[in-house]
Amino acid sequence: MSDGSRTTPAGAGAEDDPLRLDLHLCFDLQNASRAFGDVYRRVLRDTGLTYPQYLVMITLWEHEELPVKRISQLLRLDSGTLSPLLKRMELAGLLTRTRSAADERSVIVRPTAAGSALREKAKGVPAQIHAAAGLSPQEASALQRALRKLAASLDTSLDASGPRP
């Protein structure tokens, strides 16, 4: 039974143990992501959208129509995750999926009138999220730049190490 105190392997000081949880950037990112998810669930309640659905809708509101492949790239979602999500959103009347006349392998996604109308309800979401995050606009912008740099570095690292799994 643990008393909650921190233990380290024999010979390793707590200060120089690279396997301490509080030294893992990935853990802090995961915790921040989960906290964002919790706030988004509360803020999006009035829209009826889940966070992944919200991301799809803001992508469609920005671009009007997109091939599924492009949505997948923009949101970094694989087709096994995105396809069922789009199907549920289509059944809910938020978007349509149609085969491209130019390339039958491509499926084009467009918001429906109901999906477009939802944009008005969602306009306040970013301000509520920014307020909940407790960051100044400058801090939020700096954090976004740092996260984008981190993602680009990790992608470059993956590209350099060969094919992805």
Binned, the helix content reads 55-70%
Terminal Cα separation, in Å?
Answer: 39 Å
CATH architecture of the domain at 47-120: Orthogonal Bundle
As laid out across the biggest beta sheet, the strand order is 1-3-2
Query: How much is the radius of gyration in Å?
Result: 21 Å
Q: Structural class from helices and strands?
A: mainly alpha
Task: Tell me the number of strands.
Answer: 3
Number of DSSP helical runs: 7
CATH class of the domain at 47-120: Mainly Alpha
Flag low-confidence runs. Answer: none
Please state the overall shape, judged from the principal axes of the Cα atoms: globular
CATH superfamily of the domain at 47-120: Winged helix-like DNA-binding domain superfamily/Winged helix DNA-binding domain
Which percent band covers the strand fraction? 5-15%
CATH topology of the domain at 47-120: Arc Repressor Mutant, subunit A
N-to-C series of helices and strands:
HHEHHEEHHH
* Largest sheet descriptor: 3 strands, antiparallel
Mean pLDDT: 90
Keywords: Cytoplasm, DNA-binding, Transcription, Transcription regulation
InterPro entries: HTH_MarR-typ (IPR000835), MarR/SlyA-like (IPR039422), Transc_reg_Sar_Rot_HTH (IPR055166), WH-like_DNA-bd_sf (IPR036388), WH_DNA-bd_sf (IPR036390)
Organism: Streptomyces sulfonofaciens
Pfam families: Staph_reg_Sar_Rot
